[in-house]
Amino acid sequence: MNHYTSPSESARNILTANDRGGYTIPTSGLYPYQWNWDSAIAALGFAEFDIDRAWVELETLFSGQWADGMVPHILFHNPDPGYFPGPDVWGGIGPIPSSGITQPPLAATMARRILDMDAEAGAKRMRALFPAMLAWHRWIMKWRLDDYGAVCTTHPWEAGRDNAPDWDSAMAGIDASDVGEYQRRDTSHVNSDDRPTKYDYDRYIKLVQIGREVRWDQQKLLTLNPFRVADPTMSFTTLRAARDLLAISAQLGLEADGLHADIARLDAGAQSLWNDTLDAFDARDAHSGEWAQSVSNASYLCWYAGIESPQMLERLKSILTTVPHPIPSYDPNLPKFDERRYWRGPTWAFMNMLAGFGLAGMGHGVEAEALRLKTARLIAGHGFAEYFDPITGGPAGGNSFTWTAAVWLHWAG
Ligand code: 9WN
Predict the structure, then answer these.
(1) Of 55, 65, 88, 98, which has fewest CB within 10 angstroms of its CB?
(2) Structure confidence by residue, pLDDT tens digits, 133-167
(3) Which residue range or ranges hold the Mannosylglycerate hydrolase MGH1-like glycoside hydrolase domain (predicted)?
């Protein structure tokens, strides 16, 4: 008799298969290392069936924290020639070979959810991790804020939304003519039409070369790095993380000096990303002050950060009725929408989960549930893909993907 595998069983199998012992890779082949925000989501998935393993995921992530508090976007635990750029290109300066940039800070928020799932199992682990999480928060406050208090991304990979239209004008200002020869690996694993272009990659690598050249000295990079964009992803997730750190510190009686003031500053910064002309939260070039004119899935993370917006709610209602699948990474009514190309149109399950957390937390239960159901239908119908075409639901990028499986286990399924 054939054994029927339920989606939840498949999701657990994916997490287990992507487990490399203490950390989880996003998908085998394409992404053979530990990624920062992927890991925070993976922890949430593991918490549904193995709470100890969930804490281990976060502990391994923080084992790669640099002395200055930065938590890298990739930890290269075991060399793998299948990914480019690897540790030798990045020249990270932490205790574990790593990249030199960070990623949107989800760990504190996911740790709080995991703590809530089992406070007894989690209190000790949370106490031990808390100072490291606070140090990361303080590093972001020190090096990534613009004059308004919005949080900047210093590389498209730092925002985690690699080729989003948000960066187009900042990317155009990067001279990558001397980047040299290199061999991409991503396009040998997945369809190149679904990935960033060579134009993008030249600039990604050029920015890595600039950082590496000064051994990731943040003070120097403030003037040397041509790419600095105040970003809704970084701003909303940092604000949310700060609120969660404050709540955890109150719950466990931990020192958290300065968090109240940081939250006020980050709140003002996040609000400053409202673009009146666009009538949405937008990205703003920190060097030129120019708006990107981009309504992305990150624009819908305002509630996740504890920020209300009737206009964004109207937009969301319209998306929910006009787009077959959940929030796309770029507004289908804008000219740069490209339904297959990565962060320029496709829908990402975990971004919808974050928006859903925010909506539910701020009393928009109907919209949160609509988003959850759409995400559940998408995954149930099209599998655990990295991301999906928001019009047809077609799966794209890597498959058996960790964060899509985790989203199913914790939220959608
Ligand atoms: C570069 C792992 C990561 C995600 C990012 C996603 C993609 C990497 C890449 O994959 O980026 O960091 O090589 O394309 O854009 O959000 O963390 O899943």
Answers:
(1) 88
(2) 999 999 999 999 999 999 999 999 999 999 999 99
(3) 31-404
Active site residue 162: yes
326 CB within 6 A, ligand 1: no
The complex's ipTM works out to 0.99
Collect all residues with Cβ–Cβ distance below 8 Å to 360 and sequence separation of at least 6. 368
Atom number in ligand 1 closest to CA 73: 12
Tell me which CATH code domain 7-412 carries: 1.50.10.10
CA distance 215 to 7: 45
Separation of CA 38 and ligand 1 centre (Å): 9
- Residue spans of the domains in the chain: they are 7-412
CA dihedral (104, 107, 113, 115) in degrees, to 10, reads -170
Of 19, 48, 146, 162, the catalytic one is: 162
Rounded CA separation 140/113 (Å): 22
Structure tokens belonging to residue 218: 């943040």
Question: Over the range 301-336, which residues count as b (16 or more CB within 10 Å of their CB) and which as e?
Answer: bbbbbbbebeebbebbeebbeebebbbbbbbeeeee
Residue 1: how many CB atoms within 10 A of its CB?
3
Helices 349-361, 365-382: crossing angle, 10 deg rounding: 160
Provide the phi-psi class of 51: left if phi over 0, else alpha when psi is between -120 and 50, else beta.
alpha
Total Cβ atoms within 10 A of residue 84: 14
Best probe residue, ligand 1, of 23, 34, 98, 157 (max atoms within 8 Å of C-beta): 157
Cis peptide before 165 (omega within 30 of 0): no
